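for the record, two folds in this file. i put them one after another cuz i was lazy. first one right below, seq on top, structure tokens after. the second one comes after a little note so u can tell where it starts
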Amino acid sequence: MPCVLVSGSSGLIGSALVRALAADGVRVVRLTHGAATGPDVIRWAPERDVLDRAALERLPPLDAVVHLAGARIDRRWTSRHRRAIVTSRVASTALLARAVAGLPQPPGSFLAASAIGYYGDGGDAVLDESSPPGTGFVAEVCRAWEAAAAPAEAAGMRVLHARCGMVLSAAGGALARLVPVFRFGLGGPIGTGGQWMSWIALEDAIRAMRFALDTPTLVGAINLTAPAPVPNAIFAATLGQVLGRPALLPVPAWTVRLLFGQMGRELLLSGQRVLPRALERAGYTFRYPGLAEALRAALDRW
């Protein structure tokens, strides 16, 4: 039976991935901060550089590691929360990469989450995996986040950096917070509405990660985004259309800056027009390549 180690298994993406793997007969071992115990649970505390290495070494040889843990980034960036964002991504990746690299038989693949914030504010430029890193807090975190996986690569593992866009699911994430606002007819574009939004259906995010794990030719950065990014105003209009509600109330840029500070400037008022060229070249076919169908599928499931 294949065996995969997963961190961040209680999050939106992690919980969906665990369900999909288990349904296909894969043994999933979860890294957790919680009090759960058992043969398929390993305790760790990355902020204290702690991981139960004895439990890790008792496992059968791992086929892959999927590292999805990280503190929420969509809240005001106080100094304390900035430290939590960095530690929960960079320190945790370094700890996990070192731990599995030290196993007698290291896993074949190490897939670690990253984000399209790596590219900074891209304006209208089309971005793919070959595009250089941008500037800003998120871009700096992403560069350090990806670099922290170096011990896994040095141990001979195939390292994948899954640069994820906005994941569409009404069960959680940004869409779940937007839907009630739009249902009351209070939705609309943010700022000018011209900033690009690169999104992906939750089902495609899970399928694409599994495709990447099963495709030996894929290595390095992969953009987890659908092939049809849209400007924010189009996203708002499409969500309103799918919900049968108007989407005409803009959120002024000054309000975003006042309420959210740098987080609002980087995550809400800027954007990236990102294409998943690595996945497409490798032969991945999106189940939901268009925004309207992806939104309908997410809302129908909810």
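(here's the note) second protein begins now
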Amino acid sequence: MGRLLFLGLLIALIIYLVKRYIRNKISAGTAADQPVNLGTEDMVQCATCQVHIARSEAFLVQQHFYCCPAHTPKK
């Protein structure tokens, strides 16, 4: 009976270690495939309401940044 219990525990340990190895292999592969954002983006201030917004989302009109089209000067 003792040998059977020992054999069962040994098999369970081997299965656990194999699953852990496979899980680590998969998670390491997916992390390497995703791009890493190392840079930061400049913030600019709206000339009308003074709200800070990312430069890529701002509207540039006549050397001034605006947060939305409603704040841009009308002609």
